[in-house]
Amino acid sequence: MAIGIPNFPRRESGSFRKVVDAFLSREGLAFAEILSASRIERIFQKHGGLFGCHGVYTTAIMVWSFLSQVLRDGKEASCQAAVARVVSYCEVQGIASPTEDTGDYCRARAKLSEAALHTLSGEVAEERSTSSDTLQLQARWANGVESCWGSGQLLRSR
To answer: pLDDT per residue over 108-145, tens digit each?
Structure first.
């Protein structure tokens, strides 16, 4: 039985789900547009958790795909779907794509440092809470959706 987080919108929350769906509707790895590889690498290096520097499953790709995976439901949350998103991202970026084998993905995902993820989320939250420009970091998308990391929320325009 799942335990809910007090004062946190349930996954089924209509407005939250709509925002997440709009954000995740992009091809490939949506978080790659708003969370830089250099920031991820710096933080994971600090925690001794940097990996995959010369492979397909780099630390940054794994953070982006992991975040994308945990925000999805059902079959879209599977490792197979996550690998497909990584393949799509790699093809768009013109870099080597992984095989469809989910084993490599799952082993790389297991290398993600919990401490580094905690530091990463804390740094982003702190940056947003002290930003003077209305607490926004925007990535404009062709479909009219903006992702804004302000107070840890994604906001939908239109």
So the answer is: 999 999 999 999 999 988 877 776 543 444 443 333 44
Written as one string, the DSSP assignment of 87-109 is HHHHHHHTSPPPPS-HHHHHHHH
Half-sphere exposure of 118 (CA within 13 A, CB side): 4
CB–CB of 116/47 below 8 Å? yes
Is the distance from CB of 145 to CB of 23 less than 8 angstroms? yes
The reply to whether the predicted model has a pTM over 0.90 is: no
For residue 33, the SS3 value is helix
138: helix, coil or strand? strand
Q: Please state at what angle helix 37-46 crosses helix 59-70, rounded to 10 degrees.
A: 100
